Amino acid sequence: MANLFIVFTPFQLFIAQQLVSQEKLTDCILIEAYVEGNPHFLEIYDMMEIEGMWRRKIVIPEFAQWDGLRTTSIMDEVRTYKMYRRIWNLIQSENIGTIYLGEMQNNAMRFTDIVFHHKGIKIVFFEEGTAHYIQRAYPKEDWWMKVKEFVRDLVEYLPLYHVRFAKWRYVLCRPMEDGLPMDARFSVIPGYYDKPFDRRLHPTLLVSAKLDAYMSGEVNVGDNKRVMFMTDPLGEVIGKDFMYCYFDTVRECFEEIGKDAKVYIKYHPRDPKESRDKVLELARECGLDFKVLSGKVNIPAEYFLQKYTFDSIYVFNASTYFYNGRLFPQSNFVKLLPSLYEKVKSAGLRDSKLRWFESFINKN
After folding, report:
1. How far apart are CA 205 and CA 306, in angstroms?
2. What is the pLDDT of residue 44?
3. Residue range 24-50, pLDDT digits in tens
4. Prediction pTM value
């Protein structure tokens, strides 16, 4: 039977192809989607796809929002149900026996899991990033929430999809132990999960011919000292009013690196243009010898770390650090998040946001 992979991000495709290679899977079909505001992911997917690995590729941008969480009208309900029928028809016509999904915390993935596992399709979750290992905080249910869940299941999910899903809809980030079905789960980092269905993923250097040619033109193999600086869209956490703390930390980092190294600046895929431009401005002010790495097509940094050696990698909260020595050879990482934490704390960032910093600093 065929295997269906669904990806929302370039890193998910990176891991999906590792899984296909390791497990020697054949007859694989790929659904490509992207989270809102990131249509450029499709160009990245095209460069990353391994020749001959995917029998069929289907682009469904709206798949990432198909689970009915944003239902505000009858037409929203209709679109959600049409997507369900479209995927079910694909499963039947292509004789799909297993669906592979990334990010267990994502409700579109959870909806896909619950709806089609009920129909007898095997479900496999795979590594997506740090979200694969972190259980986010979630609200406790009160009596009114339980009433809403009961009614929503009664009038929508049971009649249309024959499953109960409302408890996942109303309590986002609900623990997987609350009944999320799966037949296997692949993880890169050992020691987090130990269920009978858990499997290890052992990544290797695996690149398409198109990607290999592109990467070869991005890094100068003759560099005497090579440094990578990774940006982070932390404005999503600290807000615009505290971004000056972020840029002060960037400036300090650039001053520490100095002028004797070639600095490869790697943008985060969600980094806004104004933030990218400010980082370049600071690099010029500090007199760095720098290059924007993968500026034309922003492929995952893990590919470069697999293929090239960097003397140091400067990061804020990039999940890349989490995989040091797992997805790529052991490297020297310099963490900038503690310095930024002290700045925003002194500047008066509210406690709930500070706890976010503390959770990641303590975990890493």
Report:
1. 6
2. 94
3. 999 999 999 987 778 889 999 999 999
4. 0.89
Report the pLDDT value the prediction gives residue 26, as an integer from 0 to 100: 96
Residue type, 317: N
Q: Which amino acid is at 58?
A: I
Nearest to 198 by CA among 289, 133, 285: 133
What residue type is assigned to position 195 of the chain?
A: K
pLDDT at residue 324 is higher than 80: yes
* Secondary structure of 4-58 in HEC code, one letter for each residue: EEEECCHHHHHHHHHHHHHHCCCCEEEEECCCCCCCCHHHHHHHHCCCCCCCEEE
Question: For every residue of the chain, which 3-state class applies, written as one string?
Answer: CEEEEEECCHHHHHHHHHHHHHHCCCCEEEEECCCCCCCCHHHHHHHHCCCCCCCEEEECHHHHHCCCCCCCCHHHHHHHHHHHHHHHHHHHHCCEEEEEEECCCCHHHHHHHHHHHCCCCEEEEECCCHHHCCCCCCCCCCHHHHHHHHHHHHHHHHHHHCCCCHHHHHCCCCCHHHCCCCCEEEECCCCCCCCCCEEECCCCCCCCHHHHHHHHCCCCCCCCCEEEEECCCCHHHHCHHHHHHHHHHHHHHHHHHCCCCEEEEECCCCCCHHHHHHHHHHHHHCCCEEEECCCCCCCCHHHHHHHCCCCEEEECCCHHHHCECCCECCCCEEECHHHHHHHHHHHCCCHHHHHHHHHHHHHC
Longest dimension (CA), the chain: 66
* 219-223 contacts at long range (C-beta below 8 A, 24 or more positions apart): 219/264, 219/293, 219/304, 219/307, 219/308, 220/262, 221/308, 223/262
Q: What is the structure's pLDDT at 72?
A: 63
CB 328 within 8 A of CB 300: no
Q: Which amino acid is at 172?
A: L
Say which residue the tokens 């960037």 belong to.
Answer: 250
